[in-house]
Design a protein that fits this description.
single chain; mainly alpha; 15 helices; 65% helix; globular
Length: 245
């Protein structure tokens, strides 16, 4: 009898895999009456969706059940100040996973204004969308900046928006140049030489990453400096690849 009871408990108890499986999106996709369809589809196409970062990571709730009342327990509407996806709390919520950008953003004037109650300042969703599915183009970024800093904005500095666009165009161009270098390095048959070039690649990549982080501070002097360093190192790397020993 004890053996039968034990077997029943093992079968009835949810496995660790099942417990970790998020059912939020599955349930909302299955129910045509569920709200926020566009939001759900954006998540499904995002890096979060592809990597199974479930809705509960930001919204809360219980993703291990299909029981509606239990699944939605503790979820707060974004308009409620205590909600983790309220505009004032969103940087902290995103920062639980994206620590680097959050640390940089905390150094910005925008973050100081947000803490003081100003909600019109940019937050993560301003550039990356509500589910982090977007990486804005330099032109789109210029438009976002111009909303406040353009000729008709509340803090008019139109040169700021235009300058940000130029810098982010430089970041994209540098990324493309590094992307060209990577397969060329992989083709080098001499292991010692390949290791040297891989080290150069990494040394070029670091300031480029730092430039992106500086962008989250909205301190574009720092971004320009790191971008210039990255550009010099990328050009040196490409020069080595174009003129093999």
């Amino acid at each position: 009898m004890l053996i039968i009871l034990f077997a029943f408990l093992v079968l009835a108890w949810p496995s660790p895999v099942a417990a970790q499986q998020s059912s939020c999106a599955d349930c909302h996709f299955a129910d045509p009456r569920a709200p926020g369809r566009d939001h759900l589809e954006d998540w499904d196409r995002s890096a979060h969706g592809r990597n199974r970062v479930g809705c509960e990571k930001c919204h809360g709730g219980n993703a291990a059940t299909f029981e509606s009342m239990l699944a939605h327990r503790g979820i707060l509407n974004s308009a409620i100040p205590a909600s983790p996806v309220n505009r004032r709390n969103l940087p902290t919520t995103c920062g639980t996973c994206h620590a680097g950008p959050f640390v940089a953003f905390q150094k910005s004037m925008h973050f100081d204004l947000l803490k003081k109650g100003e909600t019109d300042v940019p937050v993560c969703a301003t550039c990356h969308g509500p589910v982090g599915a977007e990486r804005p183009s330099p032109k789109a970024l210029e438009g976002e900046c111009a909303a406040c800093h353009g000729p008709k904005g509340v803090a008019r500095r139109p040169e700021r928006a235009a300058g940000a666009r130029v810098l982010y165009e430089g970041i994209n161009e540098s990324r493309e140049m590094l992307a060209v270098a990577k397969p060329l390095i992989a083709r080098i048959s001499n292991r010692t030489r390949r290791a040297e070039l891989e080290a150069m690649y990494q040394q070029a990549e670091v300031p480029l990453i730092q430039a992106v982080q500086a962008g989250h501070e909205f301190v574009y002097d720092n971004l320009a400096e790191r971008l210039a360093t990255a550009r010099r190192r990328i050009e040196a790397l490409l020069g080595q690849l174009a003129n093999p020993r």
